[in-house]
Amino acid sequence: MPGVTAETGFWEAAGVQDVSSSVHSQRADYDATYDYDYDFSYDTWDDGEDSQSSDPPSSLSTVKIFSSSVDGDPHFVVQLPKLLQNLCFTVDGRANDVLRLLEDPQQGIIVDGHLMGAPPRLGVEDRSRTYFDQLIISSVTGGSGDIMITLSLDAVVVEGEGRESLPTNQQGWVRRQGVTVTVDNHQSCWVELVKGVSFLVLFHHYKQPSYLQRAHLGFYITDGRGLSESTQGLLGQFQHADFSLITVKDDLQGAHPPNKQVIARGILRWSSQQMAVTLQEKTLKDSVQKRHQAKCWLVPKAEVQTLLGHSYESYVVNQV
């Protein structure tokens, strides 16, 4: 992009030319304390593009629908494979827990997220509220070293054949061993690991936060086609899951009190399990476009563990 200047990187400072990585940075003209929501617009990335180009590469389409995400306190959204419908559920985490969001043993990819505590809502003080304030993405590249990307509200640190830090209030990008990390001026970071595996991390800030709001991170699987069938984790396990969904008429459901938020009721089935779900309108970010109202099948809080197939504790790892 015009006006981008290369900063001195780790290898240049050491007097060594690093042909496997490239770092570029530019000061962004925006207020980093405001919670933005932009339409993202990137051209496709030709794999043969020169890694020394001053334009950040990306293989992300402007019309692509994300496969799954976790954002807020924390709310999970999964696009059901084959059905092309959204499934929404909430996990009440514990402050300072580190959750395994995704693990693909075949690709050597792991994503962990650290939870910070937030004040409870009035009237439901016994229910915990948490946000992600740190994410760590690790990838076995098969080269001379692995890649580890640590994302916080202030910086994105890329380690592997050296260490580079990209402030979140600047535009910049790093490419190492085929892994590309791009911080743009939309309060977001794109991570492209291998063909068919790309993530988006949003940095949420508020100028005048309410007592409930906390600056936090949102994690989105923008492309999961390259993840293997053995992928697990709170989000990863849904990548290749086989679900079916049957819509049920209200008059066949028994005595349900009227609820204007419920558009329809259904039965979600997978393996030998099934549960009742309700279709509701939610504000979702499921593409590179702005958040919008969309339909989502909501899992009752009491049924979330059944959906996951494991207890909350089974997703907690010892450390980031």
From TrEMBL:
GO terms for biological process: hyaluronan metabolic process. It comes from the Eukaryota. InterPro entries: ITI_HC_C (IPR010600), ITIH (IPR050934). It holds the Pfam family ITI_HC_C. Signal peptide: none annotated. One of its GO terms (molecular function) is serine-type endopeptidase inhibitor activity. Residues 106-299 form the Inter-alpha-trypsin inhibitor heavy chain C-terminal domain. This is Inter-alpha-trypsin inhibitor heavy chain H6. The gene is LOC106535873.
